[in-house]
Structures are given as structure tokens and as C-alpha cells.
Amino acid sequence: MKLDILHQPDSSIAKIDMAPNEELVAEAGSMVAMSSNLNVSTTLRKGKGGGILGGLKRMLAGESLFLSVFQTHGEPGEIFLAPKLMGDILPYQLKGAELVIQSTGYMASTPGVDIELGFQGFKSLFSGESLFWLTASGSGLVLLSAFGGIYEIDVDGEYVVDTGHIVAFEKSLSFTIGKANQSWMGAFFGGEGFICRFKGRGKLYCQTHNPGAFGRMVGSQLPPR
User: Fold this and answer.
1) Which distant-in-sequence residues (6+ apart) come within 8 Å of 42 by Cβ?
2) pLDDT tens, 115-167?
3) Which of 80, 92, 155, 224 has a CA-to-CA distance to 9 between 20 and 30 Å?
4) Phi, psi at 101, each rounded to 5°
5) Are the CB atoms for 81 and 30 separated by under 8 Å?
6) pTM surpassing 0.90?
């Protein structure tokens, strides 16, 4: 399997050349174009948490109920995948450690990767962000997508990020949710909202734009129904 990411960072699209008898799992709706010889099937799950329950849990996380499985057989093929929002794509090589992914940040993975839904508790609920995040485990390639550019931070100690800008982080990092300002009044009127305070050592991936803030801005300009 050969990966090329084109038109980075604001309009990224992934071109994946698949050898014979290879498989790729992707978020439903991410396929842009593909060779006519690829077989496509739909699954409710990928990983350990299965069946309809696994699919419904992904829906709660803001993901699609279904995942698409693309397969080659006797000959090679190619496929193009793109994020739902304009932005970047980051390949992450999973090697046994776990990666926690913000609910809309998962785009595709190879068969050795298990995608599970993780309940992040009330600290995520009160942040105004997704209550559920995905956890990738196993080994293989994971494609992360972002709204805007995506960049990597090597955390060693403590680091603070606005919750709406998180794409993914290695599970070696612990985190707490809090307000950016000392007072609730200042946090509300300052527009910063909630922040995620990471501790430990590991990689953190952030996006330059906040989908929630963008949606609220666009929504406020739309005429009432």
C-alpha cells in the first residue's frame, strides 16, 4: 500500500495505491473516487466492540453508523479519500500504543487497527465537546483528518489546548477539562470557553480551526426557517 497526500494543508486528499489482496477501512462518505475493480462492502463495526451496538455507539460520538471496507483482489487499485471539512490529513503509524481520537478526526485505517469507542466521562460532557472519543489500538496506519491545518506537539510535562482544536493524542497523556479564565464570567465573555490540560509525555495533534465555533458563526448568519 502506497500513500500520497495531495493539496495540503487546506484541501488535502489522500491517494492510496493498493496492491492485490489488500484492504482499507474508512469512514463512510470519505471516498471521492476509486478504481472500478475495488470491491466495497459496509460494516457496522471495526474492532472489538461489535455489531449494531458498536455502530450506535459511533453515532453517539458523531461518527457514521457504518464504515466502508475497500478491497482489491487479483490486481492492484487506487482510491482517493478526503475529509468532510476542508482541511489536512495526517498519517499516524500505530505500533502497539493507543491513540485517542476526537470523534470527527478518524478517516481511515488498515486492517490491523482496532477502533473502539471510549467514554471520556463527565469532564468531556461539561466541556461542550463530544462525550465519546475513539480509541485506536493494534498496529497499522491510521489517517487522521482535521478542520484546517494539523500540527504535532511533543508534550513533556504539561500543555493546554482549547477543546475544539484537539484532533488526537497518545494515551500516555492524561488530561483534565477546565476553564481558560480564572472566573466563569471571564471564561464566558472572553470567548475562550473550555481548555484541556494534558500531563505526561506523548504526542498531541491539533487543528488550526474549531469546527464548533465555525458552525456557530455560519449558523448565526443563516435566515430563520
Assistant:
1) 28, 66, 67, 68, 69
2) 886 655 444 444 445 446 788 999 999 999 999 999 999 999 999 998 889 99
3) 155
4) -120, 130
5) yes
6) no
